[in-house]
Amino acid sequence: MTTTAIAVLVILLIQPVFGFVVPPPRPSSGGIHHSCSSSHRPTFTTTTTTPGTSSRLFALERAKEVFDKYSISNVISSKDLANMLNSLDVDASREEADALFRYLDTDGDGSITLEEFLPWYSETAEEASEISSTFQSLLLGRRTVHQFDQTPVSDDVLRRAIACAIAAPNRSQSEPWRFIQVGPETVRKFVSLKESMEAPQSESSNNWTKIPGWCVVTSKLSDDPVEELDDFKSTSCAVQNFMLSMWSEGIGTKWTSGPVQKTQEFADLCGVDTKVEKVAGCIWYGFATGGLKNADPKRRKKGVEDVLTTLP
Ligand SMILES: Cc1cc2nc3c(=O)[nH]c(=O)nc-3n(C[C@H](O)[C@H](O)[C@H](O)COP(=O)(O)O)c2cc1C
Fold first, then answer.
1. Which of 99, 108, 198, 221 measures 20 to 30 Å from 192, CA to CA?
2. pTM
3. Is 70 in the pocket of ligand 1 (CB under 6 A)?
4. Is the CB–ligand 1 distance for residue 258 below 6 Å?
């Protein structure tokens, strides 16, 4: 993915464009009068993205179903349009919905038919599907980075990654995670600990002091092993969000889980109270040596067909 593509995606993900965005002129509509504010096609973002292009038909079917639900005598009123947009996950304020209503009401009769609504929705769904495929490319493109340059990474990048991490699903709103940003002084203590343990080669041949970013992630402990496992799953989701956020900004990550971080000494160095939380992993992050494309190619033994079971 090019830097520009990544930047565009970041803008889409982090600062979604909202409301009326320099809309293109409306195509001629047979001489029906429109006021200035209703002569441009209003564009909105959707809260969720509509399924990909191949699923566009499903999006239209969905629109028809929702239209049927809100319409009376096969037409939609101004108030119902706002509710219908909500149901279709199109982000629009009441004012924006009103402006859209004026735009869609091509014959000016104060109501909207399905025929008036669908072409606009179809284009909106198309735009959403482009966002969806960009998002999926980002997910598919992520890979673990093993070699980092020493260029420091801005704390803002870390904060955005943590904001994405804590948006992860979690059991009973337990929010079982904690993120510990580790500085060079503490990393040097990790190195001493590692040397004192004579950790096996498998730990990593990296020089830990040269890794630009360290973030230790912890997960809550519980008396109930089922709850603790669920919490750990939630924390794993958070880590994935964290790594994807970094990747979207051109920053590589590696989730490490070697023997050093399983020790009480490591927990003590991180200020982790092992009676209430445990170290889930340590995320290294930084600019990838040779660029992100130089990271290990994705290796998966199984494809979708190998892992998908469909029941009647
Ligand atoms: C829970 C967990 C622990 C991991 N621990 C290590 C580790 O200690 N050392 C390492 O080199 N990679 C570690 N990884 C990264 C995996 O090796 C990597 O995700 C895997 O090779 C797949 O590559 P990809 O991330 O590029 O898809 C870990 C990944 C996970 C999810």
1. 221
2. 0.79
3. no
4. yes
